Amino acid sequence: MVVLAKPPALDQISLLRSPQPGDASSFPGVPAVNLSSPGAALAVVDACERFGFFKVVNHGVPAGVVDRLEAEAVRFFASPQAAKDACGCGPASPLGYGNRRIGRNGDMGWLEYLLLALDGNASVSKASPVPSSSLRDAVNQYVASVRGLATSVLEAVAEGLGVAPRDALSGMVADAASDQVFRINHYPACPLLQRLPDSCGVTGFGEHTDPQLVSVLRSNGTPGLQLALHGDDGRWVPVPPDRDAFFVIVGDSLQVLTNGRLKSVRHRVVANSLKPRVSMIYFAGPAPAQRIAPLPQLLGHGKQSLYRDFTWGDYKKAAYRSRLGDNRLDPFRI
Ligand code: GA4
């Protein structure tokens, strides 16, 4: 048992866990894909089938756009807590500035964040409170580029799966009514960790799958992200940070649209004792009325859908009734 002289704030919200990654020796590493190279579509599908995860390199998103947003985010999160609490954009419910509370059902993490809704033009929506117009502008500029990356990824998935038209998936995200969200997470350094045995970790963001089609994540150079391997008893492996790449995460909706051929991936973040981690994630979701069902071309040869029919609106509503770590697709399986 660990006895701490002075109970830290962390104790109040029972964050301590032991999220130990497993033996990563047989993990070949995160696949890296250059979307403009020949064979990219097959490489994307292969990575999505094996891991539900890969990183995009040589992506063409200007470094200045990324750096500008990271600097704005760091500046906001570094402001006094009282200023953040009074920024007029919190507490998150679920949009806005959130501190440690995730979602509506009691999930907690060692982080603070901004969760923003985007409108049909992929600009921060009027319904989303933001702390400053400079942060809003930086998000809009960033999302304009990263949404293009998500589009290319979804086109590559369609091509690699032999699905026509090429925009069968990406069109769901390009739809003017599509439901896209953007999140900036700040995981402060957690010095308490240095006083705990190695076997103890602090949960930054608990394990979960993303409900959307795909998520595109970029982080600073601080480690912490881990993913559960498909098969292999869901062994957890660390994802080495790469501030120059974008990580693509397969979400539950893409799993259903491909009738389980691509699988969403459980992932989580553990806190770091020394360095703060900042990540920015674009979640590509479809319009609320969009039917989420296997694409007809993937249901040939008498194959049945593994899922009952539902819309993105139904799924999102169910997600917000769930706990972070729940398997949200289970109730939708036939
Ligand atoms: C996980 C993916 C995205 O971060 C998110 C999260 C959302 C939230 O933080 O408000 C949820 C979570 C996420 C899934 C289950 C519900 C909803 C918290 C939670 C407990 C913005 C999303 O779309 O779903």
TrEMBL record:
Reaction catalyzed: gibberellin A1 + 2-oxoglutarate + O2 = gibberellin A8 + succinate + CO2
EC number in record: 1.14.11.13
Domain (Fe2OG dioxygenase): residue spans on this chain: 177-286
Domain of life: Eukaryota
Cofactors, names only: L-ascorbate
Keyword Iron in record: yes
Single GO MF descriptor: gibberellin 2-beta-dioxygenase activity
EC category name: oxidoreductase
PROSITE patterns, A to Z: FE2OG_OXY
Keywords: Dioxygenase, Iron, Metal-binding, Oxidoreductase
UniProt similarity note: Belongs to the iron/ascorbate-dependent oxidoreductase family. GA2OX subfamily.
Protein name: gibberellin 2beta-dioxygenase
Higher taxonomy: Eukaryota, Viridiplantae, Streptophyta, Embryophyta, Tracheophyta
